[in-house]
Automatic annotation (TrEMBL):
This is DNA mismatch repair protein MutL. The chain holds residues 10 to 332 of 657 of the full protein. Keywords: DNA damage, DNA repair, Endonuclease, Hydrolase, Nuclease. This protein is involved in the repair of mismatches in DNA. It is required for dam-dependent methyl-directed DNA mismatch repair. May act as a 'molecular matchmaker', a protein that promotes the formation of a stable complex between two or more DNA-binding proteins in an ATP-dependent manner without itself being part of a final effector complex. It comes from Desulfosporosinus nitroreducens. GO terms for molecular function: endonuclease activity. Residues 201-319 form the DNA mismatch repair protein S5 domain. Belongs to the DNA mismatch repair MutL/HexB family.
Amino acid sequence: AHSANQISAGEVVERPASVVKELVENSIDSGAKHIDITIEGNGVPLIRVRDDGSGIGITDLPLAVIRHATSKISQIEDLNHLQTLGFRGEALPSIASVSHLEISSRPVDEAAGLSLTLHGGEQAELKEIGCPVGTSVTVRDLFYNTPARLKFLKSTPTEFGLISDTIGRIALAHPDIAFSLTHPQQVVLQTTGRGDLREAIGTVLGYDIARQLIPINEQQEKWHLEGFISPPNLVRSSKQAQFFMINGRIVRSPILSRALAEGYHTLIPVKLHPVVVLHLTVSPSDYDVNVHPTKMDVRFKEEQALTQFIRETVYRGLINSKP
Ligand code: ADP
Ligand code: MG
C-alpha cells in the first residue's frame, strides 16, 4: 500500500541530511522565526525539528502525510510564481513511509495541539496534546523498513557533517531566522536570527573569515546582488565555501560560479576559490526553475547580461576595497 511512497522516499529522502532539509524547509515555509533541530547519532535514531511557525490546522494534520496533499499550490501555473520552498507534497509522506514519525502541531488560533503518530506510513494514533504554537516533527529509526538504504549510510561523523552543512547553508540563506542544532545534548550551531548576514557567516564559517569579507550591494534595474565576497588572499582549494541564493533559495549554479570566477580573474590562481555568500534577487519572470526533489536547475532569460552584471559587481567590489 505504501510502495509509491517508499519509491518516492528514495528520491526525496536519500539520507538523514535530506530529511533534515525537507523538515526545515517546511518550517521556513510556515513562517517560523525560531527553528531548533535535534539529532541523535547519524540521524537514524532521531531527527527532531521544532518551529514556532503557523502550525498545521487540526483537520489538515492527517492530510499532511498523504501524498500530494501540499497546501502550497492550487494550480500548476503557480509554479512560475513559487515563493515557498516546498510544493510537491511529497516530503512528509515519503519520510513517514520509512520511519516512525510523530508530528505535533498547534495553530495560533487553537488552545491545544494535536499529535499524529505513524509507523512506516500507517497511522497509529491521533490525540490532543498540550504544546506551544508551532510544529514539532520527530523522525525515529529512519529507514528501519528499507535495509538497503540503511546499509548505504556512512558513519556518524559523515552523516552528521552533512546535516550540519545543510543547516549552515540554510542559516546563510535565512539570517532572519534563529537556528539551533543540537547533537547530542550539545548546541553545535546557533544563529541569532537578527538578520545580520555577516554575523550569520561568522557563526557558520568562522568569525575570522567573516571579519575579512568585503560587502557587496549592487542594485540594477532587474537584479540585486547583495552579500559578501572574500579578498583575493582569502581562498580555498574547493568551492565548498561558496554560497549562492536566488530569491532566498539555495542554488548550485554553474552560471553564477563562472561569473564569480571571472570577476576574480587574474586576482587569484585558477585552482583556488574565493569564499562568497551572495544573495541574488531577480524577477521570477526572468528565470526558469526546474525543480527536482533534491536539486534546482536555474536558467536565466538574459544570462549574458546577468553574468556580466555579477562579474563587474564582484570586480568593482574587489578593486574598491583595496586599501
Ligand atoms: P510540501 O512542503 O511540498 O507542501 P510536505 O510533504 O513537505 O509538502 O508537507 C505537506 C504539508 O504539511 C505542507 O504543505 C504544509 O501544509 C504542512 N506542513 C508540513 N510541515 C509543516 C510545518 N513545520 N509547519 C506548518 N505546516 C507544515
Ligand atoms: Mg515540504
